[in-house]
Amino acid sequence: MNSLGGIRSWPANWRSTTALMTTTENVRKVPQVLTVAGSDSGAGAGIQADLKVCAARGVYCASVITAVTAQNTRGVQSVHLLPPEFVSEQLKSVLSDFEFDVVKTGMLPSTEIVEVLLQNLSDFPVRALVVDPVMVSTSGHVLAGSSILSIFRERLLPIADIITPNVKEASALLGGFRIETVADMRSAAKLLHEMGPRFVLVKGGDLPDSSNSVDVYFDGKEFHELRSPRVATRNTHGTGCTLASCIAAELAKGSSMLSAVKVAKRFVDNALDYSKDIAIGSGMQGPFDHFFGLKKDPQSSRCSIFNPDDLFLYAVSDSRMNRKWNRSIVDAVKAAIEGGATIIQLREKEAETREFLEEAKACVDICRSHGVILLINDRIDIALACNADGVHVGQSDLPVDLVRSLLGPDKIIGVSCKTPEQAHQAWKDGADYIGSGGVFPTNTKANNRTIGLDGLKEVCDASKLPVVAIGGIGISNAESVMQIDAPNLKGVAVVSALFDQDCVLTQAKKLHKTLKESKREI
Ligand SMILES: Nc1ncnc2c1ncn2[C@@H]1O[C@H](COP(=O)(O)OP(=O)(O)OP(=O)(O)O)[C@@H](O)[C@H]1O
Ligand SMILES: Cc1ncc(CO)c(N)n1
Ligand SMILES: [Mg+2]
To answer: Helix/strand/coil (H, E, C) string of 336-369?
Structure first.
């Protein structure tokens, strides 16, 4: 297992497709997931959701069906369990043939079905197991009764890499533990972790009275609260299956667990937002659109895997400063992340392309394992070659609409804007956020016009996109920036305040604390 929290390494008896590639020419490895779940005739949840998510995330998905439900947007009318022997036939069939990176389980409606699953997983080991302990549909119908609780607790959970119960399921697994607050979710996650899974995600979609939709992630040491504003919509049927399948898909592509979970949360959030007004079926719980990312609408970039809150502490690397302090770019990035940086931009004006690419690849690995976004300044070629999360471009770099067509809908694009007109254009062209400044004078960028706090406020007011402030910002003035009264100002970007310093880690921690405190005061 990767010490930074990556998924576990391949077992010795794992037949690697990479090995196959060396013997067969023109073979391309495709990440593969197997879902073991129930069919939803309404196709919003279950197997059907899993297949759609994996397709949307570029991963192949095979399906073993455990039960067939008669289900629509009004609820579940009937459930038909498949015989365990036949579930086993399906499992053997695909596990003996395909080379799955990840197995994801959904509805496992009987002890016997869990037994055959466990037997097949021991016969055919896989790299990671995602367990969504489905028990009750959002409409309240029981999909797996309490008889499965003991085999879940004693045998399935201990071999899971991650479990993703909703609050009701977490409570049932813990023998009726009351979960009414985020603090209760944290306690539940900790207790569930003691049952053996490597990671726990307690989903808060059904937590009463919350304006945010909060999920609690626990890795055995640290908690992360993943928050997003609750989308006001009836179309939430299948959010749980979607989240777990997206985690499985991202793991299959090689993400670390935290990274996979963050991407999955954004994916659900974006899908709900994109589909909030669609009308399918006449009941209370409609399905949503998993393929929002493919829509040609120029605003579809809005739906990329990007959380504006990640702009909070935005660290921009600078090779000159790293040289001065005798640090590698990788060490600088590591320290910034450990100190609380939420997004990294590599800005290398002088490096040779090949050298920059190698450094960028190493930084991508570090960022992925910490669930932190990595952007490349200006160099679309490097961003593509190292599979960064996106790019940041200036007004004299390639135009944003062209960058979008080169990078596709999933990548994040940021653009520097000094004026309301530029901010409007960035939005029209499909950017995800804007960087605005220089707010204060800075030595990092020569001949850069300073716009001041007033200029920043003007740009924020005009911008439909989230904004990160940049230029001469540090611990002493970050608070004044965060308090300009602009709800779309999500954070500050810094260069010297972190990297032209003796200890990057200490400065990052201090700045993070300052930002947190100034946010609280707003
Ligand atoms: N209205 C909403 N707005 C934003 N996010 C939501 C909303 N409802 C659910 N989510 C998110 O969807 C994911 C699934 O959570 P949820 O608690 O709904 O799971 P679930 O009950 O297992 O889902 P289902 O049974 O409908 O498949 C979580 O990340 C949760 O935060
Ligand atoms: C088949 C199936 N699996 C899972 C869920 C949970 O949403 C559902 N409603 N139906
Ligand atoms: Mg729900």
So the answer is: HHHCCCCEEEECCCCCCHHHHHHHHHHHHHHHHH
